[in-house]
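Folds abound. A case:
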Amino acid sequence: MALADRLRPLRRTPFPLPQAWPACAQGLLREGALWLHGSGWGGDVLALPGGPRLESRWSGDRWITTLEGQEQPGSPYAILERATAFPHPWIGALGFELACGEGGLSHKSPAPGELGMAWQGVAQAIQVNDGKAELWSWNEAPQTSVEGILAQVCTLARPRLESLIPRWDAAIHRDAVEAIRTRILDGGFYVANLCVPFDARWSGDEVTLALSAFRRAKAPFGALLPLGGPTLLCLSMERVLSQNGGRLTSEPIKGSTALRGDTAADEAAGAAMQADPKEIAEHTMIVDLVRNDLGRVAEQGSVRVSELMALRTYPTVQHLVSRVEAKAKAGMGLAAILRSVLPGGSVTGAPKAAVCAHLAKAEASTRGFYCGALGWIHGQDFDLALPIRTAQIFEDRLIYWAGGGITLRSEASKEWGELHLKTKILELS
């Protein structure tokens, strides 16, 4: 189904772009527009600034959720479900710790005031697909005063990004990997996704950084979202959950190998990954976990794996990707679906409750928006990416996480190398 059919704008107006896309988006982005960029979304969506704002912040003992600054009763997911029933779409993100809390899973406690969820209602958006643009509107008076802003293409200096520094070293990571392997041997769980934050100082313009990153990374689920806390620069390859007319889809990724630019060598490496017992076991366990999560909110017998361990190639890495589909039970609301599936199985492990309890103690800090969910919601339909390969950008620093699934067959040195491989997508920018 085309994106216009899913987002259902009241008005669609052809919109000649005054400059090349996406360079002409810079002015609007600097004024606070939200941008979903990449083939996975079905084309670019640039939500114009303004619109109602929904956010949740940690008080020290609970999430306080506000809509246009007014505190709302209920859980964050229940409030999100009520808000997104409005006749316009919402674009935003929710964090890992909030998702764990909604799902009844253990997690580290965020700092007081930390943002756990932020969504903006979209009244106007520019949609671009195959170089053709339209102005989409969900109200009766479409705004057409953006042409001048789009014509203002700024040329700024290349942002300076210092080296990404992991918060712990290879020895600490080895101990963390071995602790998980011990828990697996003891029967505590089967696979756990261990993640490490990388810190970097940076300076410059985040819009220029995003344009460069999008151009080089070619991520299907890109996004630049100023959230009123960190700005998220997402370069994700993974769809964590989508609903289209009651049809649920999740596309978990497990299995990584470097892409070196030598066709024969890369083909051999991809084939070897598909045949590797460790990768097969890890991927299969996560697919089974996703099937179980979807099964709790799906019609009986509707869950199926429509694609298993397909090899997908990206600029720096090859991944194994599966697709799990299901039909949602009649009357199943957004909150129940999100609680069943989030946080995604590929970034937690199996069984999810036991793994999250371990990770809450083992990892270096809260994950924030990393490994939560990001994308759009419109009524009953939504499309959410998993914010992996995602930088959380602050004024002069950023945090970029990387992780990998640990199984009994994992080797700590290889897992440490995989973390650094996954940072290359940001270093390209």
